[in-house]
Amino acid sequence: MTTNYVKGQGSDFRNEIQRVAIIGAGGTVGKPIAQELLNTGKHTVTALTRAGSQSTLPEGIQTVLVDYHDEASLLSALEGQDALIITLSITAAPDTQSKIIQAAAKAGIKYVMPNIWGCDATNDSLVNSGLGWERLPRAFDEIEKTGVSSWVALICGFWYGHSVSMGPATFGFNFAEKKMVFFDDGETQVNVSTPAQCGRAVAKLLSMKVLPEDENDRSVTLSRWLNKPVYISSFRVTQKEMLQSWKRVTGEKDEDWTVTYESSRERYEQGLERMRNGDHDGFLQAMYSRVLFPNGDGDYESKYALANASLGLPQEDLDEQTRNAKAMVDRGYDYMTKRD
Prior knowledge:
By secondary structure, this protein is α/β, with parallel strands linked by helices. It is built from twelve helices and 14 strands. It folds into two domains: 15-157 and 194-231, Rossmann fold, CATH 3.40.50.720; 158-192 and 234-299 and 312-330, UDP-galactose 4-epimerase, domain 1, CATH 3.90.25. The chain is 34% helix and 16% strand. The strands form three sheets. Strands 1, 2, 3, 4, 5, 6, 7 and 12 form an eight-stranded parallel β-sheet that branches. Strands 8-11-13 form a three-stranded mixed β-sheet. Strands 9-10-14 form a three-stranded mixed β-sheet. It is globular.
């Protein structure tokens, strides 16, 4: 945008986002985002879904069938939308997001939230870790180069409950044997979030005015984060704190658990080797071990101001979220399908 205030915009400029399209509105983060947007009463929310999708969508959402690899299908679905939120499965074809971004620009969509929900995609050290994350910032460049759309990326860390429930490859919990692996000393702080917190954050962002009215308008507007990351978090927590929370929730004692220690870097290298051998759990091991390096790459809160207060996000309770994680473990949560 060439000017920073509403008073400098053309007569067709609308200082609010009314129509929002979501890809993946039935998924882990897409569903709470869609629900929170509907809850505001300020948005018409449209889910772009593939033919044959079995996802359950929030009540009140509109749906449009789409073929992500057919530009005409995408353009038809995106016509008239103000904003687009992309949440794609890890199994989506690598070029899917690029096709969606280009279609969004051709449809005139001004605001795009790309498929970046997790670790800090602006951190070159993390991005170049051999985990395929180098593609993440490419979405930022591609969106900007359209000359039509601006991006907003939600940096939220790992999803806490899902991560805990996945077992040893992620945060080191082996529930069947009551064994815990601490990486290094187990005291590295890492920012994590819940999908519900992500949903609230996105709804708050897209419910703001886009620009301040003039130089005297001090209200928080979406423009603060256009072509920038938005850092949010539910908790900044260590592995030791996670295990203590689990014990509080379950009533288990220190003596019930066997604790061992491993180097995060060695775990990371082992995970990369497992990845090369086609082991998906190796990717999880490498990813979580890398973010928990003691250099602070997983603790973005210490480097940047969180947007929690600006967005009016609530302070969540760690033990409550650990209780939710236990419920996922008890009912056999499947991280590959994101289904119970």
